[in-house]
Amino acid sequence: MDSRLARRIRLFRDSGQVRPEVAAFVTAELETLAAEGRPVTEDSAGMLTSHLLMALTRLLDGTTVDPVGTEAAVAEELAAHPEALARARAVAVRAESELGASLPGPEVHFLALHLAVWRGGPAVPAARPRRDTP
Q1: Is the pTM higher than 0.85?
Q2: What is the DSSP letter of 130?
Q3: Which of 87, 94, 90 is nearest to 24 (CA)?
Q4: CA angle 97, 98, 100 (to 5 degrees)
Q5: CB 112 within 8 A of CB 84
Q6: Which of 23, 45, 107, 133 would staple 103 via disulfide (CB 3.0–4.6 Å)?
């Protein structure tokens, strides 16, 4: 992960906009993507990072965002990107397990869109080794 992206996460965390555990979760996801050969930079992953940080924070705070009728268009776009949707669903499972934040379908789909348009790198598998937490 490049220094600008790490700074983005640090700013969200240090400003109190996101909880430290959310910042750690997102950092682990990005590190996994980097280990798989994906370019994890501010340019390639900045939007994904901000979206995931804020979505998880909203969920942990008990709020959600209404997709306002975009589900059909998003589902249609994702039909061409099953690997991105599988990865987003896997992230959602880990978020539920590790943070207690259950990403609803629209959030999973928007996360999958970010993954589908990722710039460069090989296809992204859906697995990340489980982190052991004390």
Answers
A1: no
A2: P
A3: 94
A4: 70
A5: yes
A6: 107
